[in-house]
Amino acid sequence: MLLADRGYDADWIREMAMKKGAWANIPPKSDRSDPICFSPYLYRARNQVERFFNRIKQCRRVATRYDRLAGNYLAFVQLASIRLWLAARYESTP
């Protein structure tokens, strides 16, 4: 499944996704004349993923990618993810 925002609503992008075996869930632009299939529920999941990446990029090391090796970068992304998860989990606990 291809999840993208409204800026990527083009017929050629939808056709390319279909050729690759994916379904494009892209909200239609206001000037689109023919109706398309769109799921707002799946689009909300895309928004959650995008907000996660925005929060994880607050870590300077992730945003600037100081690590040369992909394994080291992935390890720090995982550490930053754990840090965010712990902060969210224990923030609401009294």
Kindly describe this structure.
InterPro entries: Tnp_DDE_dom. Residues 2-86 form the Transposase DDE domain. This is Transposase DDE domain-containing protein. It comes from Bradyrhizobium ottawaense. By secondary structure, the chain is mainly alpha-helical. It is 56% helix and 4% strand. It contains four helices and two strands, in the order βαβααα. Strands 1-2 form a two-stranded parallel sheet. Helix 1 (11-19) links the parallel strand 1 (2-3) and strand 2 (24-25). It is elongated and about 45 Å long. The mean pLDDT is 88.
Mean pLDDT: 88
Low-confidence stretches: none
Instruction: Give the quaternary arrangement of the chains.
Output: single chain
Roughly what fraction of the amino acids lie in strands?
under 5%
Identify the overall geometry: elongated
Biggest sheet layout: 2 strands, parallel
The SS-based structural class is mainly alpha
As a whole number of angstroms, the C-alpha radius of gyration is: 18 Å
What is the element string, with H for helices and E for strands? Answer: EHEHHH
Q: Fraction of residues in helices?
A: 55-70%
State the end-to-end distance.
40 Å
Question: Can you count the beta strands?
Answer: 2
Strand order of the largest sheet: 1-2
Number of helices: 4
Domain Transposase DDE: 2-86
Protein name: Transposase DDE domain-containing protein
Pfam families: DDE_Tnp_1_2
InterPro entries: Tnp_DDE_dom (IPR025668)
